[in-house]
Write a structure and sequence with these properties.
Blueprint (H helix, E strand, L loop, with lengths): L1 H10 L2 E2 L3 E4 L17 E4 L4 E7 L8 E10 L5 E7 L8 E2 L5 E5 L3 E10 L9 E9 L6 E7 L2
Antiparallel strand pairs: 1-11, 2-6, 3-4, 4-5, 5-6, 7-9, 8-9, 9-10, 10-11
Length: about 150
């Protein structure tokens, strides 16, 4: 009983192993999950785009979240960032249909999307988690948090 409670406590706590990286090979156009219209959404009058990326391999971590957003560069391009878990290995799955967004003027845009992760190095099956991240369009700061457990 104590072991079961301890396991539940671990699953309900945040995991710190998610990263925000500059766009690299993961963000290539051929990695946009098909169909594009189901795996990409815009916010803030089109200034922000969130998309699901599927690089295929590794099977335990082939999915990423793409964020195109202000601030804009000198040529008018948006910043391009990728959310990964961990060390650029990606997520085991992303339920993009369930992506939710909200806005808080003191924080910026806030997103929540269910993901699956291999939370331990010896895990055989992925576990459910909620990826939550905020985006400050003025600074470009993206603050991710992963909460293990569905």
């Amino acid at each position: 009983m104590i072991r079961a409670l301890a396991a539940l406590a671990v699953l309900a706590t945040p995991a710190a192993a998610q990263d925000v990286i500059a766009c690299d090979w993961q963000a290539s156009a051929w990695n946009l999950a098909e169909p594009w219209e189901d795996n990409s959404r815009t916010f803030s009058n089109g200034a922000v785009r969130i998309a699901k990326l599927d690089v295929g391999e590794p099977a335990f971590g082939g999915f990423f979240v793409l964020v195109l957003s202000p601030p804009y560069g000198e040529l008018g391009e948006r910043q391009c960032r990728v959310l990964t878990f961990p060390d650029t290995s990606g997520f085991a799955g992303i339920d993009f249909d369930r992506l939710e967004a909200a806005y808080d003027p003191s924080v910026g845009l806030m997103f929540t999307v269910p993901v699956r992760v291999f939370a331990m190095t010896d895990a055989v099956e992925p576990v459910g988690a909620m990826l939550k991240f905020s985006l400050n369009q003025a600074t470009g700061a993206i603050s991710p948090r992963l909460e293990l457990g569905d």
